[in-house]
């Protein structure tokens, strides 16, 4: 019932909360709207929530009440899973952000969300060659230090960070601004399949929901909310990465920003953050590991079913300080 109500188009955080407050639980809320005649359902929902009537909302809630298992069946058909704040393995950091996702729909390994060493790496969809290379190197170093990379599966910086993680055979988490049935832009679909193999793809949107300008800023609060730190690689002044940075600061997360080059519009947002916020400058990979408090000796543990993951003698020696 919770998932059915939350997945109705037009039922946002406020409407959902007020319906639960009025009726005590999601099932009772569905039943209350279902008991209304279709002709007056919109007005009844508005009265229940103290909002203006929205055409078609009552009808959509009635449809959800008639078949509350529809969305879970869609998710199961995709081989996915879902979590609500009522579930014990719902990511604890998301409980502490404003407007926690009412539902998390996911593909891949759900346990990946439970790591306490999640670090977001984000930036522009049109990075410079230096920015793309920096994203790759930062993600690779985070994996070496035992962290899990979180990003948005967009083109550019996001894709480079995810790709570095999967090429290192490490889990990574992609938070997308659409339903999990069509995750990320088409050129990244092959990358998405590789992410699902070891990590996870998650969304707060039900299968079938298309990405839009409004869905991306909202998904950014989940990227920063899951992670204990966020790293901005390259961001113009109107970049969505700055939205993620603002969320990270509001959520009390650590924020590191690559310094970039003065007068380069691709890093104008970076320089603005460094000038106007308490963000730390990203000045090197060793300094990155130190600033995040990542223990260099706590390297990612290989999967038990992967015999090739055992370190060689040379690989083990390479991890030691001089």
Short description:
By secondary structure, the chain is an alpha/beta fold.
Q: Overview of this structure, please?
A:
The protein is an alpha/beta fold and 322 residues long. It is 44% helix and 11% strand. Strand 3, helix 8 and strand 4 (148-151) form a beta-alpha-beta unit. It is elongated and about 75 Å long. Residues 297-310 have low confidence and may be disordered.
Task: Record the SSE blueprint.
Elements: H1 2-6, H2 13-23, H3 26-34, H4 38-49, H5 57-66, H6 70-77, E1 81-83, H7 92-95, E2 104-108, E3 118-122, H8 129-144, E4 148-151, H9 157-167, E5 172-175, H10 189-198, E6 200-203, H11 215-226, E7 229-232, H12 240-250, E8 254-258, H13 268-276, E9 280-282, H14 285-291, H15 313-318
Parallel strand pairs: 3-4, 3-7, 4-5, 5-6, 7-8, 8-9
Antiparallel strand pairs: 1-2, 2-6
């Amino acid at each position: 019932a919770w998932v059915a109500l939350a997945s109705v188009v037009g039922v946002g955080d406020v409407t959902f909360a007020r319906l639960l407050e009025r009726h005590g639980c999601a099932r009772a809320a569905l039943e209350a709207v279902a008991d209304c005649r279709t002709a007056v359902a919109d007005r009844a929902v508005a009265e229940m929530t103290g909002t203006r009537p929205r055409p078609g909302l009552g009808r959509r809630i009635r449809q959800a009440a008639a078949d509350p298992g529809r969305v879970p069946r869609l998710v199961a058909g995709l081989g996915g899973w879902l979590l609500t704040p009522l579930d014990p393995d719902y990511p604890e950091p998301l409980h502490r952000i404003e407007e926690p996702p009412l539902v998390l729909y996911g593909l891949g390994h759900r346990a990946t969300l439970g790591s306490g060493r999640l670090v977001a790496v984000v930036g522009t969809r049109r990075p410079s060659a230096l920015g793309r290379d920096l994203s790759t190197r930062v993600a690779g170093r985070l994996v070496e230090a035992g962290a899990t990379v979180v990003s948005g599966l967009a083109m550019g910086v996001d894709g480079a960070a995810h790709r570095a993680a999967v090429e290192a055979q490490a889990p990574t988490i992609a938070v997308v601004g659409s339903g999990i049935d069509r995750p990320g832009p088409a050129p990244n679909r092959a990358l998405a399949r590789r992410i699902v193999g070891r990590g996870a793809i998650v969304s707060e949107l039900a299968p079938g929901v298309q990405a839009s300008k409004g869905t991306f800023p909202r998904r950014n609060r989940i990227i920063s909310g899951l992670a204990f730190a966020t790293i901005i690689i390259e961001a113009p002044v109107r970049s969505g990465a700055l939205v993620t940075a603002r969320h990270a600061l509001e959520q009390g997360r650590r924020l590191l920003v690559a310094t970039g080059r003065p007068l380069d519009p691709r890093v104008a947002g970076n320089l603005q953050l460094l000038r106007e916020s308490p963000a730390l400058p990203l000045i090197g990979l060793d300094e990155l590991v130190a600033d995040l408090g990542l223990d260099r000796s706590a390297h990612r543990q290989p999967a038990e079913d992967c015999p090739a993951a055992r370190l060689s003698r040379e690989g083990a020696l390479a991890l030691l300080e001089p």
